[in-house]
Specification:
8 helices, alpha/beta, Rossmann fold, 7 strands, globular, 25% strand, binds S-adenosylmethionine
Length: 204
């Protein structure tokens, strides 16, 4: 019951359909920070294969059970920084970080982008979904949601989680610095309450 409600809320609040449109047909996808696997569930029928990684034991076990019968989904319980450091050269065509980078300490964010780039095949893409820190009033709403819904109600929060937000310009520059050409920057409409931004970068 909770899982269906969570999926319903998440698919409405997070623009999964916009992410799906950015994924080429028949892609081999890696989702870093897959949580309960809501995004995986949304895209799994449109991709060739998808691997999800999450360090939260409860969420990754839940996702692992949910996708047991899918032959194109694999769930790995691991920290993404560790996973990226140890992964062999796997040629993913798409790597997605959807609301994950904000949980990665600032000092590891650049390393995450750099190592994700190394796992992509040439011409592969990184898709970032973030909450921008501008405009400030929208970012304030993000902080309120994070503090009250997540921290106070302890809904959907991973243990000891802290948040590290950066601006969309920071991520655009970071991707460019690591050899990505920015092909799409999709921002929420101005009347929307959340400063959600989706950035797609193609490895050159
Ligand atoms: C807000 S959820 C997003 C889930 C999913 N990507 C989506 O869009 O529905 C962020 C997830 O990233 C995971 N996460 C954060 N930092 C991580 C890390 N260093 N290693 C692995 N997972 C991480 C959290 O456990 C959480 O499940």
């Amino acid at each position: 019951m909770f899982s269906k409600l969570h999926y319903y809320i998440r698919t409405r609040l997070a623009p999964y359909s916009k992410i799906l449109k950015l994924i080429p047909y028949d892609a081999s996808v890696l989702e870093l920070g897959c949580g309960h696997g809501n995004l995986i569930e949304f895209v799994s029928t449109s991709v060739n294969h998808i691997t999800g990684v999450d360090f939260d034991k409860r969420k990754s076990s839940y996702a692992d059970k949910k996708f047991k019968s899918y032959n194109n989904v694999e769930i790995i319980h691991d920290d993404i920084v560790r996973f990226l450091s140890q992964a062999n050269k796997r040629n993913y065509s798409v790597i997605i970080l959807s609301d994950t980078l904000a949980s990665v300490p600032f000092r590891y964010q650049e390393e995450t982008i750099e190592k994700a780039g190394a796992l992509l095949e040439n011409g592969g893409v990184v898709i970032l979904k973030i909450q921008d820190v501008e405009p400030k009033w929208k970012f304030f709403i993000v902080l309120v949601i994070v503090s009250f819904v997540y921290k106070l109600l302890r809904l959907s929060i991973s243990s000891n989680q802290e948040f590290f937000y950066q601006s969309r310009l920071y991520y655009i520059k970071l991707l460019e610095k690591h050899g990505f050409r920015i092909t799409d920057v999709i921002m929420n409409r101005s009347f929307s309450l959340l400063p959600t931004v989706i950035i797609k970068g193609q490895k050159q």
